[in-house]
Amino acid sequence: EAQVTQNPRYLITVTGKKLTVTCSQNMNHEYMSWYRQDPGLGLRQIYYSMNVEVTDKGDVPEGYKVSRKEKRNFPLILESPSPNQTSLYFCASSTGGGGYGYTFGSGTRLTVV
Amino acid sequence: GIQVEQSPPDLILQEGANSTLRCNFSDSVNNLQWFHQNPWGQLINLFYIPSGTKQNGRLSATTVATERYSLLYISSSQTTDSGVYFCAVSESTSYGKLTFGQGTILTVHP
Question: Mean pLDDT over residues A2-6, rounded?
């Protein structure tokens, strides 16, 4: 089944403890992105990648890192999480204009205390 | 950057009613998608429709790219249609970024 897989689905952590949210797609897509969703602010892009080793900042990149060493994986790294990074996170992938648009993962609900 | 406006912000229906959701965007796009976010938070891709008309069961969508708007039609609504509907676009110059509208919250009562 074609899909974008995020892990974990739920995570509660403490301020300052480094964490990684993994994202993997099995559709050989070039484009991958991370978004966060917050009440009243909607969905905003954090980072995106157009191919292996090619990444760029979205609208809200502060406090996040990404890497794209393999085509299928695009992990989101929070080096020192803070409570304002409590949010619902989505990973997405796309062929880049292939006629199907973006496919989203099931989301990761992160709470930083 | 591109602006995306959705209307109405909220919509309450009785089961069986029809509805139309609208998405206006401020610039040329090479991607437009409609998503349904279900009560569990999952974003379900309904349509990829940068132009033209598509139908999938009780749902259909039309995008008039030259006039910069898209419409999502829901016919014979069911309680399972409840949730938030998002329109998202990519500017013609930047496929890598999806910009989302603020969404329409749909509630369907039995």
Answer: 93
B3 touches chain A (CB under 8 A): no
Distance CA B99, CA A45 (A): 8
Task: Say yes or no: A102 contacts chain B, CB-CB below 8 A.
Answer: yes
In percent, how much of chain A has pLDDT > 70? 96
**Rounded to an integer, what distance in angstroms lies between the CA atom of residue A22 and that of residue B93?**
29
Tell me whether B102 touches chain A (CB under 8 Å): yes
The mean predicted confidence, pLDDT, of chain A is 94
d(CA B22, CA B87): 9
- What are the distances in angstroms from CA A27 to CA A71, B66, B110? 10, 32, 39
Judge contact between A71 and A28, C-beta under 8 A: yes
Specify the pLDDT at position B98.
87
* Contact criterion met (CB < 8 Å) for A48 and B45: no
